[in-house]
Amino acid sequence: MKSAPTLSSAFLQPAGEFLPGPLLELRKQRGTALVDMPLPTRKTENWKYSSRHLKLSDELAASLPSSGKEGSSLALPGYRVIFRNGVMVPEASDFPDMNGIRIQRFCDLDDQEAAALAERLDNTLDSHAVQMARLNSARFEDGLLIQLDKEAVLDQPLFIVHEVTASSAGSAYPRIYVDAARHSQMTLVEEYISSGNEPVLVNTVTEFVLAEGAQVTDVRLTLEGENVQHIGATGVRQAATSRFESHCVGFGGPLRRHDLQVRLEGEGAECKLNGVVVTQGKQHYDNHTSIEHVAAHCDSEETYRNIAADESHAIFNGRIHIHQDAQKSNANMSNKNLLLSTGAEIDTKPELEIYADDVKCAHGATIGQLDKTSLFYLVSRGIGRREANTLLTMAFINELVEQVPVEAVRDAVQLRLNDFFNQAFQEI
């Protein structure tokens, strides 16, 4: 009987040693726990569509150098932090100078601050469901700690640009931890871009902890090239009356994977999760979301849209879990999917697990093609067939794109969508 593949020991070799002692010790512990870790296979339920796209050859184990060019697809009208190959670049960053807001790179923490952070890392994600996040914990070389004091409000978005320069094969492990105190507010924009053509693995983890009444909006934009495997995880824990918004916009690649897990742990907490995915060629994108209604009187709203063209493949797996004590929960999940060709594939699996008896919950999913009647109507009114296809396809996702609260992101997405439409409908 053939044994299951395990993580190569090459991925567990020591990386950069610039972190303070407590974080180095944490990383060592996480690495030891990964020895002989089984890799996901098609029999691994939450990886059954994506395991064959995961390529972890030894050449990807080396950490990418922190040198390279600086860039972004965004206009960056707010504050910015630049990560290059998983390591922060202070000289290229522009931090807010405001009372009550502290932004520190992991490498600059003293031992006491690092020890406090080490106790809190990895407490927002289910390590069994998000296996590859454990690799980030064993390999991160730097990270960003964002702390908002009580009632602190960040007046502009904070842009974090993760650039990978693939001049050689290797991997990068960006890490972000956000601690939002009582009634604080901020908007965070994570942009993932790349340059170069060598094979690269990007393994990211972002964690949010929201205290009572905190409000955090996270915008995630994935724009990396065809040579980049991207595996990301976002974990969120919310106290009473806090609100978390997520706007994820992703363009496909050889492997794109994002796990988003939210725990509503205090009464009156709310979350809103929006997602847009576009794939073409032979690209692959896999979104897994989980919302845990732990406390009573919590609301969640989730809307994801996928568009797949050519021979690409998009996956959505959304789970809402209503715990026994989560009475008066209100949860809604919607996943709509559009196939632009007969060779494209979309798989969707909405899950609703309820253990409380006084709740209001709904979920649904659809998969279809462009409506021929609507297309005929537009063409009959003098609109070209290609333009008509573009209009109908854009209308399918425009509702979610317009909800992204940062204009620079909306503009970047629109430019990228125009390129997608030009290729998807070029033969029409």
UniProtKB/TrEMBL annotation:
Residue span(s) of domain SUF system FeS cluster assembly SufBD core: 167-396
Pfam family of the protein (one): SUFBD_core
One BP annotation, GO: iron-sulfur cluster assembly
InterPro entries linked: Fe-S_cluster_assembly_SufBD (IPR055346), SUF_FeS_clus_asmbl_SufBD_core (IPR000825), SUF_FeS_clus_asmbl_SufBD_sf (IPR037284), SUF_FeS_clus_asmbl_SufD (IPR011542)
UniProt superkingdom: Bacteria
PANTHER family hit by this protein: PROTEIN ABCI7, CHLOROPLASTIC
Protein's recorded name: Fe-S cluster assembly protein SufD
Top-level taxonomy: Bacteria, Pseudomonadati, Pseudomonadota, Gammaproteobacteria, Pseudomonadales
Designated gene of the protein: sufD
